Amino acid sequence: MEYKKTDIHFIQCSPEELDESDRKLVELARQATYTAYAPYSHFCVGAALLLDNGCHVCGSNQENAAFGAGTCAERTALFYAHAQHPDAAVKAIAIAARGTDGEFTQQPIAPCGVCRQALLEAQKRGQSPIRLLLAGRTTIVMMSGVECVLPFAFEEIV
Known about the structure:
alpha+beta; globular
């Protein structure tokens, strides 16, 4: 038997500490929350991608009375990006949310498990890490790759 350990590394900062490109990506994710269709949860999530061709693609959560038919903001953005820019790799994603009170969440939120796996697939497809920027009202959490939020992905464990 061998004991093993994994560490997750991330940077925490304020929105003001972001560079211009990251600030723009976070703002696009925040704006995308206003296109969410969330009549059941009233929890509006926005995601913004930066592609290696310089394009930005945004998505928001889209709920449905048949819950499984809805989709999260991250997958909305990813799948649209891959459909419209099939040869472009995703360089970064920013995610923001507004709670049931209509205000942006104080603390950052992380993608759900299904979105984490979809992000990992996009990272593999693009053959380069996808930086994550999880945006709260006063705190931003930055991660260098999807493995930071999904250390045991649906793949072979080495």
